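Q: I'm writing a short explainer about Capsule polysaccharide export protein for a general audience and would like to include a description of its predicted shape. Could you first generate the structure from this sequence?
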Amino acid sequence: MVMQSDLPAYSSNAEYLSRLDKVLSKGKPGQPGYLLKRITRYTGVCLIWIALIWVPILGYLGSAPPKYTSTMSLILPGSGVSASVNMEGIGQASSFASSAFASNSLSPTQTYKRLLRADRILDAAATSLMTERQYLPRPKVTLVDQTGLIHVEMTGVSPEEARDRNQAILTAFFTEVEALRADDLEEREEGAVKAIEEYRDSVLATRQAVNNLQTQTGFISKDQFDRQVTDNDNRQTEVVGLRAELEEKVAFVAQMQAALGLTPLQAARALDLYSDQRYLALVADLADKATLRNEVGALYGARHPERQKAETDYARAFEATVDAAMAVTGLPRDVAEKLNVSQFGDRTSLLAELLRNEAERAGLEAQYLELNRRYMQEKNRLERAALAASKLEDLQRDFQVAEAVFASAIARAQSSKTDVFASYPLVQVLENPSLPEEGTASRKKMALLAGFGATFLVLMALSLGWVRKSIIRWAIGLREGPTHV
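A: Of course. Here's the predicted structure. Afterward I'll give you a sentence or two in plain language.
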C-alpha cells in the first residue's frame, strides 16, 4: 500500500504518475524479467489460495460417506370418540375421547415431535439396531401446518440402513406411546381406586348408621312409619265408630231396663224361673186362683164368704209364688213380685232381648276399651318415634346418594379403561418408512458450489491486483490537479 508520506507533492500529474510507477512496480516494465516475475508471483499466490480452498473440500468429498434419506409420515385423526351406557337402577356411565386438536393450549403434534426426537427414543432405536447411540443421528421431524401430519426423515449410509433406522425410530416411538398411555391409565386408575375406596367407606358408614337407627326404632324405612301412622289413623276411625255404636247400645239397654223395671242381671235370674217346675206349678195355680177370684168377684159382694175365701186363696198362692221366686233367684221381694208371670204376663222374649243387648253392649264396651287403649298406646309410640323416623329417612336418602355415587364411580372407572386416547391421541402411520433409491448429495453440492465461489473470488481479487495501475491511472486522470494517495 502506498502511503502519503512516501510521495511528496508534485507540480503536475505527469510527474506524479512517473513517480507512482516507480513506487508500485519497484522497477520499470521494460526491465528484463519483470513480467515473468510478476506472473510467477501472482501464480504462486493464486495456487496457495486455491490449495487453501480446495484441499478441505476435496478431503470432505473424498472422506464423506454416501448418505440416503428414508421418509415416513404419521397422522393424528381429528375426530373424538364417545360412548354412553345406561344401567338401570344405578345410573349412566359415559366414555369420551376428545379430539386431538380440541385444546388450544396443547398441540399433540408438537408433543409427538418432541417425543420422536427424545433421547430415550434414540436409545431404544439404537438398542434394537444393535449399534451405539452416538452413531445414530437424530431424526428430522417436520410438522405440516394446519394438518395433523408429521413428516419424519432419517439418514443412513445405505438405503436399507436409512429405512431400518426409520423403522426402529417408528417402533420405539409406538412402544413409548403405548407405555405412556399405560402409565396414564394406571395413574388414573389409582386415583379412581382411591376415590372408590372413599366412596365405599362412606357407603359403609351410612349403612351402619341406618342399621343402628333401624335397630333402635324398629322401623325398616320411613314408609313403614307412614303405614303405621295410617293404620293408627284408621284405628282411630274405628274407635270413633265403636264409641257411637256403644252409646247407641247403652241407650237401648237403659230404655229396656226402664220398661221392664229390671236390670240385666235381674232379668238373667228371672229367666232361671222358667226352668223351675215348682215355680211353674205355683204360677199355674196362681193363675187358676186368679181366675176363680175374678169369677167370684163378679157374682158376690166384697163381704161375701165365697169372695173373701177366693181373695184369701189368691193371696196365699201369690205369696207362695213370690217366696219360690225369691228362693230360686235370690232377688229381693219387691223385684221377685215383679217376676210374677201371672200378674205381668209372659216377658221371656223381652228379658232375653235385654240380656242379648246387654251382652252386645258389654262386648262393644270391651272392644272399644281395648281398641282405644291400643290406639292411644300406638299414638304415643309414634309421636316419640316421629323424629327418629325422619332421621331414618334422611340417612336412607344419604345412603342412596352415597350408593349411587359409589356405583357411578365404579362404572366410570370401568368405562374409562376404554378411553386410552384421552391424554395421548391416536396416531397412525400414513406412510411407512421408504427405501430411498438415490443418495442425498445436497451437502456435497453445497461444498462444490462454495469451492467454486471462493475460487472465483480469489481470481477476481488477483485480476484486480494485476490491473491496479491502470485503474489508478484512470482514476487519477479524472482529476484536474495533483492528488496525494
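A: For your explainer, you could say: Residues 4 and 484 are 6 Å apart (CA to CA).
Q: Perfect, that's easy to follow.
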